[in-house]
Design brief:
Blueprint (H helix, E strand, L loop, with lengths): L1 H29 L23 E8 L2 H4 L12 H15 L7 E8 L8 E7 L6 H9 L10 H14 L8 E8 L11 H16 L5 E7 L6 H9 L7 E4 L5 H12 L8 E3 L2 E6 L3 E10 L5 E5 L13 E5 L4 E6 L4 E9 L4 E9 L2 E5 L3 E3 L7 E4 L16 E7 L5 E8 L4 E4 L9 E10 L5 E11 L3 E6 L4 E4 L5 E9 L2 E2 L2 H4 L8 E7 L9 E3 L1 E2 L6 E6 L7 E12 L6 E13 L2 H7 L1 H22 E2 L4 E4 L2 E4 L4 E5 L5 E2 L7 E12 L4 E10 L9 E5 L4 E4 L2 E6 L2
Parallel strand pairs: 1-2, 1-4, 4-5, 5-6, 16-22, 24-32, 36-37
Antiparallel strand pairs: 2-3, 7-14, 8-13, 9-12, 9-14, 10-13, 11-12, 15-17, 17-20, 18-19, 18-21, 19-20, 21-22, 23-25, 25-26, 25-30, 27-28, 27-31, 29-30, 31-32, 33-38, 34-35, 34-42, 36-38, 38-39, 39-40, 41-42
Helix pairs in contact: 3-8, 5-6
């Protein structure tokens, strides 16, 4: 028994091992080798989110004259410069929606500028309660700092630009000055001498870095600021020199600067004591109302062109209360007549409007473009939700633009509309050298209406990608289940080995996405292209997105990796657009149900026609003296398989009789007619025919045929 038990255990163990081995073999044979997938956390955007790479420094005159000294009355007794400057910062921050974000700095100046009077360039964003904005707001307070040294203030601003690498990071430097007087310090020079050093400083440093300066001046006595205006005009554009008669106007002048910097339509403040009607123009993404009531108990109601009252319950409306004013922002406002109305309290109300038009969003080229590859200028006239901004027949728009090269050369652009909301330039542009190229897009409407968007394209020498398939402007025939992509990694016109240029793994170096599909759709699929083992610089991949719609597609490839030579990040984006049209088979497959329905209708019409046209047979045939009565709608005559058997020599049919309803002209209605169809010989394929009438007779195959109706 023990031996049997041992033997059984051995057998059981062998059986288990055999089963495990079999299972392992089956599993191995069924498993497939899966490639390692690199994960990308974000999609490639259809258009460039240009951000606001701008550094703005506010030079705020805090000289003694602002607060008053001796017998001299204060220019700003109520410290409105502080209130208006906070309003200015708030409005600037609202323009900072995407990276790179706006930076703002503040310099309080008087006789000198000390560190405690400087707020360093600080990043601000449009998000509510932005910490950077709060920090700057808290910095603003009224001071009395003696004389008015513009040169010290401008030197401090320049040092802030240097410290924060404004020029290295290719950000736009802007200085905004608010003052009430003329330059003066402990030296007590003449105006000529002061402005000689100011202009020299501007020309030697600020002008070379393309720093824009805006200056707002107030002159309550008419003896200080007014004398300096001709000096400022010697080196600043006249439209950048703004004058106010009263401190209440400072808000509006700050608004005008924002409109110039961000290419916003100009809008004067609305002032009323009861109600006020105004027109809202089309093509606005947002409209901002900053409501300043004369007293706190005044309440204002705004109604749109459909008579609807603005309410914070509406998801498209944002309302925020500040200590001295209220802001209401309306997204996608309806064009037409609007109205303000005071519904509580009495007094004067001043409302500043900021009009934010729909943007022309740059699809191609990318903001960093590599020298050696030409580009088409493509933009999308879309809302934030990617829906098309439709051009209204009653408010037509003409789209134009220009490219400004670093040397000042201008190339004019004309655009053609492609798919939904997509516009492209008629010609490609090939940059001649490195540097910053400006692309300015302009939409012009009636009565001076204009939308302008500017983009800075940094053209550099670096590795880049070319799309070999599908080629730009290609027309592809036939729907397909995916899109095959071929690209080449290039540098100075030659294909390169990714491993010799990049630290980044070649398998996660180049990414691809269909960013635009017909009817304004987009694909969410982003893939990494695989390097080819057969050809240097070649990358391939397949986007598993079914291409099943006729129209235009936009493909974007993004190169993003760390360079071995410098350790810096290298980014390149290339765009290819192609049109997909259905093949003949696609048409058949797409409309098979229509084709099937046509065939069914055709077959049914034949069947119905046949059914209603046929007539029931009557009478009988006499063949060689033998009677054969006709029954039904068709009688065959011949051998064994016929209804009327007259011979054993063959099985086939030599004749048949059919009846029809036909219109009889003589009697004016339908009547029956019978026809005899017959062969001249058994070998014939075709049948001859003759009409049967009462008493008809004939000879077929040597047999005498007669027809009797009754």
């Amino acid at each position: 028994m023990t031996d049997n038990f041992v033997e059984n255990r051995k057998f059981l163990l062998l059986a288990i091992i055999f089963l495990l081995a079999t299972n392992f073999f089956i599993c191995c044979s069924r498993s497939e080798k899966k490639p390692f997938k690199f994960v990308r956390q974000e999609e490639i955007n259809l258009y460039e989110r240009e951000g606001t790479p701008i550094d703005i420094i506010l030079l705020l005159d805090q000289s003694a004259s602002m607060s008053g000294f001796g017998k001299t009355p204060p220019t700003d007794p109520n410290n409105l410069r502080i209130e208006a400057s906070k309003y200015f910062l708030n409005n600037l921050a609202r323009r900072s929606e995407y990276e790179p974000f706006l930076k703002i700095g503040i310099v309080d100046f008087g006789t000198i500028v000390r560190d405690e009077f400087i707020a360093d360039l600080t990043t601000v964003t449009s998000i509510p309660e932005d910490w950077g904005l709060i920090k700057l707001m808290n910095f603003l307070k009224p001071l009395s700092l003696g004389y008015t040294s513009f040169i010290k203030a401008m030197e401090s601003a320049y040092q802030l630009f240097i410290k924060n690498k404004t020029f290295q990071e290719k950000r736009k430097p802007i200085i905004v000055i608010f003052t009430d007087g003329e330059p003066d310090d402990e030296r007590h020079l003449t105006l000529d001498k002061y402005f000689e050093e100011i202009e020299k400083f501007y020309n030697n440093l600020l002008k070379k870095i393309q720093c824009d300066i805006f200056i707002i001046g107030i002159d309550t006595t008419g003896e200080t600021w007014s004398k300096t205006v001709p000096y400022w005009k010697n080196f600043l554009p006249e439209e950048n020199i703004l004058k106010i008669e009263d401190m209440d106007e400072l808000h509006q002048k700050y608004n005008e600067i924002i409109q110039k910097v961000f290419y916003l339509p100009s809008a004067l403040p609305d002032v009323f004591t009861q109600s006020f009607d105004f027109e809202v123009q089309p093509y606005l993404e947002k409209i901002q109302f900053d409501i300043y009531p004369e007293t706190k108990d005044i309440e204002v109601e705004i109604t749109d062109s459909r008579g609807r009252k603005l309410s914070e319950k509406d998801p498209d409306i944002y309302i925020k209360d500040y200590p001295t004013y209220k802001t209401i922002i309306v997204s996608y406002p309806l064009a037409g007549p609007w109205k303000y109305k005071i519904i509580k309290g009495k007094g004067r109300v001043k409302i500043y409007k900021t009009l934010i038009p729909n943007k022309m969003r740059l699809v191609s080229p990318s903001l960093k473009h590599t020298l050696g590859r030409s580009f088409e200028v493509i933009f999308a006239f879309l809302r934030d939700d990617n829906s098309e901004v439709e051009v209204l027949p009653e408010y037509p728009l003409i789209f134009t633009g220009k490219i400004v090269s670093p040397n000042g050369k201008i190339v004019r652009l004309e655009f053609k509309k492609e798919e939904k909301g997509i516009y492209r330039s008629e010609k490609e542009f090939n940059p001649e050298g490195e540097g910053i190229y400006k692309i300015i897009l302009i939409a012009t409407g009636r009565e001076g209406f204009e939308i302008k968007n500017e983009f800075s394209i940094d053209v550099i020498k670096a590795p880049y990608i070319n799309i070999n398939h599908p080629v730009n402007k290609a027309i592809i025939k036939g729907y397909r289940k995916d899109l095959k992509i071929e690209a080449a990694l290039m540098f100075e016109g030659k294909a390169i080995n990714a491993l010799k240029f990049f630290e980044t793994d070649p398998h996660s170096l180049i990414w691809a996405q269909l960013v635009y599909l017909p009817k304004g759709k987009s694909s969410k699929i982003v893939i990494a292209l695989e390097p080819s083992n057969e050809e240097i610089g070649r990358f391939e991949g397949v986007i598993p997105e079914p291409l099943k719609d006729k129209g235009q597609y936009i493909l974007k490839l993004e190169l993003y990796g760390k360079l071995i030579s410098t350790g810096e990040k290298c980014r390149d984006i290339v765009t290819a657009r192609f049109d997909l049209s259905p093949s003949f088979i696609n048409y058949i497959l797409s409309y098979w149900y229509i084709i099937f329905l046509i065939i069914v209708i055709w077959a049914a019409s034949i069947a119905i026609n046949f059914y209603f046209k046929r007539a029931k047979l009557e009478g009988y045939l006499i063949i060689d003296g033998e009677n054969y009565y006709l029954r039904g709608y068709k009688n065959t005559i011949g051998g064994k398989k016929a209804n009327v058997k007259i011979t054993d020599e063959f099985d086939g049919i030599i004749a048949y009789v059919k009846g029809y309803w036909v219109k009889n002209i003589d009697i004016g209605k339908k009547a029956k007619e019978f026809y005899l169809y017959y062969k001249s010989s058994p070998k014939d394929k075709d049948f001859d025919s003759t009409i049967l009438y009462d008493g008809w007779s004939g000879n077929i195959f040597g047999k005498i045929f007669k027809y009797k109706k009754d």
